[in-house]
């Protein structure tokens, strides 16, 4: 009886202990794929792929995964990564035209080349070693030269301006890294269906790399390690690919309608050359969204009112301005809190019901011409170089107000209101920044630095050891139109071995990051039913508004690469000349030599005597001082007197030379 | 009287000329020229070091400032203090003008001392006629004017580099030695060494000056004079020890005095200690003395900065292979040290000239040369 009870008790215990694993969906591995398409104001289309893999914490799930990539899991385990972001970008995000004030921009607009940052949960003295190993691992994983970030001159540890985080953050960027298909393929291999099925199947390489901008990003968030061990979601791997493509104008004749240019119509087939043939069966959900921007919606509303057409209806999928080729499954409206009367609209399509023979090809056809502009960040940041020559220059960061006295600034534009701007900038050591030359110009007028600067942290660059790092918090009045920060620098000189192969191209200064902490780029959508979307929940997260500035190209003076031997030889010759002549001057006694010569010439003829005299004169020319004045002394010993006169002459000569 | 008035007129004109040049700094841009401002003496770098120190970081953080912390606390406040509407480096430039003036005055005084000693030794050689022939203008005045009107000195003074101060200290040390004021000589020598390491070799001329006095003609001359007076055998051919009997009588005309040398040594160690204490106080939070020595003297010796200057070393070390680097560093620095002893033996009776030769050699061969040190050659 007692045995039965104990077995029962054990079973109950077992059940209790196993319940959390099977209880919620969070205990399972998850993979989801989503694609967001958005027409851009300058006749282009933004395609944003979002793949998310989740692995539950190791403590309750174990080490084996069905979906989650093993390589990433091992990476997290080995280097104790708490957060990491790696992006490969080609092209520059056009903040003016493609928008600077939405979640996609602030999270996915990245500087050209490679950018990597990681928060490693290891003791502070091991962070650098871990970082170095991590760069090598990633370099192997993604076929890129991320290992160049290993050197301490290439990465830095920002304190607060990049991420409000701990001391264990490391940040590095390689502006010149060329991004191509060999980086995309390993990235796609991390997906459970690779690019064989699902949304990733439409990633046709030529059409991606023909685009104006593409940025592939990998972001890891892990609660595996550290204090929150086993608390939450385990490891989340977020892979995004953001592409800006220009659809081919299909009907160029009908593009002009009433004098205004019709936006190009497009479909998945026309921009990617492929269609979606069903979903990746391993994915929990596979969704395509078409987003109609906030400003576009308001523009359409205005147009509609003017033409007397019915307003764009949030629940219908057709309207007088454009046609969607496929009926959306759902229409989601933005929950608008701050941004005026209009809110963006999402059309949701589920790709589950489409099959190989019946592929999914959504398209958008414009019926009426419409012009709009994307929402902008409060300031547009750009950076440029001032000065010429190979010796010095200045870096200028300019902030221009995008909406003078309007929009979201209007409610803040009261007296005394200020906007906070954070600037984070890393400069390589050969750009030697003089921090005391920082100058601030507001609306074209010079201001005291202390007026605008609220907080600054610099770690000056050490030659050949560490890059210079500058973190600033600036506060400007809301009514400001433009501001410029300038800082002077000297260009350093490198050793011949430190120049890259194409030294005359110049050296890149990585992008500066300008953040606007007063603004949030989050977007909330009214979701009626239960199924959550990783992409939309990403949009709702606390997204700080930030923008990257341009990369600067600094030309440095280059030495003559071809002839180190010549330089060595000529320098050594100069030294030998100096040494030899000094030794000669020290050793020789001209007076005595002349006397010996004279004695020798007594025995020879007249001509050799003259010659030798001449040569002696030439050799000892500088000693022949004009003063030979001691002639009045006793003439007892002419030779002795000559010597005395000579020495005195030398003394006087020295005297004059010396004074 | 006429001569002194002319002298002062020229001095004031040179100072005025400097002031005029200081008012047009933007056009000249001398402070940015590598010929004028080296990484060691650049006033911009000093300002950066001062800024770093003000923001409670080590002034040696980063590879900007390589000077002395004392210079930082003296000149630093002047770099930020600005008078409305005037160029920012005005205060420092004025200080440099004053430093130049003081240097010129010291040179003048040294020259006068030298001339006095020189005429004394000539008199003792019965060569008074030589004296009269060179009676045009006092040598000290000429030297001071040459220093003040030397274009290189003017450029250095106007071009915001700290080398006028270093020149001042070197000249101060020589002046002190000439007048046999041991504390002053030691002070100048220690500070000059602290600022730019190379004046350390000036210890030999300074000791000779203190020991022998400013002008000690070689004994040979006296011996010869004695021998000629005695009408001794012409067959000697200047082989001076040929008549030892007469030479014994008047030989120790300029004996080597150990007392001032010992004083100098004591004072030098005292000043050195004092300087180190001051530096360690000012760098207490930022790594202390070791860090300072590494960043100043270590920087001079290891040639870390490869930016161009008028020397040959920077290009050499920009191109030389890394595994030869240490070897050549040693070779080039030994080149300076190598000539010290032979020159000292050869020129020991003219310590001032010896000092000049040392300064000239080290200013040619040092790791970060600039025109300023050539301006020392007066």
Automatic annotation (TrEMBL), chain A:
Listed InterPro entries: PIG-T
GO biological processes: attachment of GPI anchor to protein
Keyword hit for Nucleotide-binding: no
This protein's record includes keyword Ligase: no
Signal peptide from the UniProt entry: 1-23
Pfam families: Gpi16 (PF04113)
TM region positions: 565-586
Domain of life: Eukaryota
Keywords (A to Z) from UniProt: Membrane, Signal, Transmembrane, Transmembrane helix
GO cellular component: GPI-anchor transamidase complex
UniProt cross-references to PANTHER family, sorted A to Z: GPI TRANSAMIDASE COMPONENT PIG-T, GPI TRANSAMIDASE COMPONENT PIG-T-RELATED
Designated name of the protein: GPI transamidase component PIG-T
Organism: Nelumbo nucifera (Sacred lotus)
UniProtKB/TrEMBL annotation, chain B:
Keyword set, alphabetical order: Endoplasmic reticulum, GPI-anchor biosynthesis, Membrane, Transmembrane, Transmembrane helix
Principal localisation: endoplasmic reticulum
Pathway annotation from the record: Glycolipid biosynthesis; glycosylphosphatidylinositol-anchor biosynthesis
Entry's localization field: Endoplasmic reticulum membrane
This protein's GO CC annotations: GPI-anchor transamidase complex
InterPro entries named in the record: PIG-U
GO biological process: one example: attachment of GPI anchor to protein
Membrane association type: Multi-pass membrane protein
Spans traversing the lipid bilayer: 7-24, 197-214, 264-284, 296-317, 323-345, 352-369
Lineage: superkingdom: Eukaryota
Sequence similarity: Belongs to the PIGU family.
Protein's UniProt name: Phosphatidylinositol glycan anchor biosynthesis class U protein-like
Organism whose genome encodes this protein: Nelumbo nucifera (Sacred lotus)
């Amino acid at each position: 009886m007692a045995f039965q009870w104990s077995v029962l008790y054990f079973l109950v215990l077992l059940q209790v202990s196993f319940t959390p694993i099977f209880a919620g969906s969070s205990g399972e591995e998850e993979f989801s794929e989503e694609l967001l398409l958005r027409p851009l104001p300058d006749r282009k289309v933004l395609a944003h792929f979002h793949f998310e893999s989740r692995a539950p914490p190791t403590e309750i799930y174990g080490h084996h995964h069905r979906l989650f990539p093993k390589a990433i899991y091992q990476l997290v385990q080995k280097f104790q990564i708490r957060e990491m972001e790696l992006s490969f970008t080609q092209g520059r995000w056009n903040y003016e035209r493609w928008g600077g004030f939405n979640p996609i921009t602030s999270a996915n607009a990245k500087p050209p080349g490679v950018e990597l940052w990681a928060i490693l949960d290891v003791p502070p003295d091991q962070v650098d070693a871990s970082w170095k190993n991590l760069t090598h691992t990633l370099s192997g994983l993604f076929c890129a030269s991320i290992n160049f970030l290993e050197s301490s001159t290439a990465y830095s540890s920002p304190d607060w301006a990049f991420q409000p985080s701990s001391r264990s953050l490391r940040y590095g960027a390689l502006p010149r890294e060329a991004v191509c298909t060999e980086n995309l393929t390993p990235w796609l291999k991390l997906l459970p269906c690779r690019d064989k099925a699902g949304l990733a199947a439409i990633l046709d390489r030529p059409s991606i790399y023909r685009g104006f901008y593409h940025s592939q990003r990998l972001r890891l968030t892990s609660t595996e390690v550290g204090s929150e061990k086993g608390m939450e979601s385990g490891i989340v791997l977020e892979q995004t690919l953001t592409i800006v493509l220009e659809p081919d104008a299909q009907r160029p004749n009908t593009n002009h309608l009433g004098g205004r240019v019709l936006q190009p119509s497009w479909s998945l087939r026309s921009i990617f050359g492929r269609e979606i043939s069903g979903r990746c069966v391993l994915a929990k959900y596979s969704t395509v969204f078409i987003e109609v921007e906030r400003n576009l919606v308001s523009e359409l509303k205005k147009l509609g009112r003017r033409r007397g057409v019915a307003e764009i209806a949030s629940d219908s999928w057709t309207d007088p301005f454009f046609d969607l080729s496929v009926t959306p499954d759902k229409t989601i409206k933005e929950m608008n809190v701050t941004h005026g009367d209009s809110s963006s609209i999402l059309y949701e399509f589920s790709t589950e019901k489409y099959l190989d023979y019946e592929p999914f090809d959504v398209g958008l056809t414009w019926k009426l011409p419409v012009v709009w502009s994307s929402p902008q960040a409060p300031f547009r940041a750009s950076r440029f170089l001032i000065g010429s020559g190979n010796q010095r220059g200045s870096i200028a960061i300019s902030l221009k107000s995008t909406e003078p006295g309007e929009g979201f600034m209007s409610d803040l534009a009261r007296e005394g209101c200020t906007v906070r701007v954070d600037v984070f900038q890393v400069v390589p050591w050969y750009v030697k920044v003089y921090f005391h030359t920082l100058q601030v110009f507001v609306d074209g007028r010079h201001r005291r630095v202390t007026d605008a600067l609220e907080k600054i942290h610099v770690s000056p660059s050490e030659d050949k050891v560490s890059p210079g790092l500058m973190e600033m918090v600036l506060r400007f009045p809301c009514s400001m139109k433009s501001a410029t920060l300038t800082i002077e620098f000297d260009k350093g000189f490198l050793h011949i071995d430190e120049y890259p192969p194409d030294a005359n191209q110049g050296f890149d200064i990585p992008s500066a990051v300008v953040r606007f902490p007063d603004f949030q780029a989050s977007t909330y959508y009214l979701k009626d039913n239960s199924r959550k979307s990783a992409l939309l929940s990403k949009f709702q997260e606390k997204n700080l508004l930030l923008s990257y500035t341009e990369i600067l190209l600094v030309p440095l003076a280059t030495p003559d690469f071809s002839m180190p031997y010549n330089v060595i030889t000529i320098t050594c010759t100069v030294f030998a000349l100096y040494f030899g002549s000094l030794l000669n001057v020290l050793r020789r006694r001209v007076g005595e030599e002349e006397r010996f010569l004279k004695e020798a010439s007594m025995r020879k003829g007249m001509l050799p005597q003259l010659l030798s005299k001449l040569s002696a004169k030439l050799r000892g020319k500088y000693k022949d001082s004009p003063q030979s004045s001691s002639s009045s002394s006793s003439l007892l010993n002419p030779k002795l007197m000559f010597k005395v006169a000579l020495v005195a002459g030398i003394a006087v000569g020295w005297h004059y030379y010396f004074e | 009287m006429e001569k002194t008035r002319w002298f002062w007129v020229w001095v004031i004109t040179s100072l005025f000329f400097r002031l005029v040049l200081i008012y047009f700094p933007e056009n000249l841009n001398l402070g940015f020229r590598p010929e004028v401002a080296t990484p060691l003496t650049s006033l911009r770098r000093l300002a950066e070091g001062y800024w770093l120190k003000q923001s409670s970081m080590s002034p040696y953080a980063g590879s900007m400032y390589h000077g002395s912390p004392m210079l930082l606390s003296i000149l630093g406040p002047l770099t930020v203090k600005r008078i409305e509407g005037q160029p920012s480096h005005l205060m420092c430039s004025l200080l440099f003008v004053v430093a130049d003036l003081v240097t010129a005055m010291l040179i003048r005084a040294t020259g006068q001392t030298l001339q006095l000693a020189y005429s004394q030794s000539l008199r003792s050689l019965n060569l008074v006629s030589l004296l009269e022939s060179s009676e045009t203008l006092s040598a000290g005045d000429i030297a001071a004017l040459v220093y003040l009107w030397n274009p290189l000195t003017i450029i250095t003074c106007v071009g915001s580099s700290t080398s006028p101060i270093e020149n001042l200290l070197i000249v101060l040390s020589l002046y002190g030695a000439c007048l046999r004021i041991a504390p002053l000589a030691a002070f100048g020598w220690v500070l000059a060494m602290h600022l730019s390491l190379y004046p350390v070799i000036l210890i030999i001329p300074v000791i000779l000056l203190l020991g022998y006095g400013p002008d000690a003609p070689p004994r040979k001359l006296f011996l010869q004079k004695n021998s000629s007076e005695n009408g001794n055998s012409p067959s000697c051919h200047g082989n001076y020890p040929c008549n030892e009997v007469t030479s014994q009588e008047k030989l120790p005309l300029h004996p080597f005095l150990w007392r001032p040398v010992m004083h100098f040594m004591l004072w030098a160690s005292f000043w050195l200690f004092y300087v180190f204490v001051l530096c360690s106080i000012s760098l207490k939070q930022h790594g202390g003395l070791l860090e300072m020595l590494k960043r100043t003297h270590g920087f001079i010796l290891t040639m870390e900065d490869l930016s161009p200057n008028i020397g040959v070393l920077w290009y050499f070390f920009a191109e030389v292979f890394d595994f030869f680097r240490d070897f050549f560093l040693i070779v080039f620095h030994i080149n300076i040290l190598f000539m010290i002893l032979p020159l000292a033996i050869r020129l020991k009776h003219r310590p001032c000239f010896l000092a000049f030769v040392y300064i000239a050699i080290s200013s040619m061969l040092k790791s970060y040369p600039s025109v300023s040190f050539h301006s020392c050659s007066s």
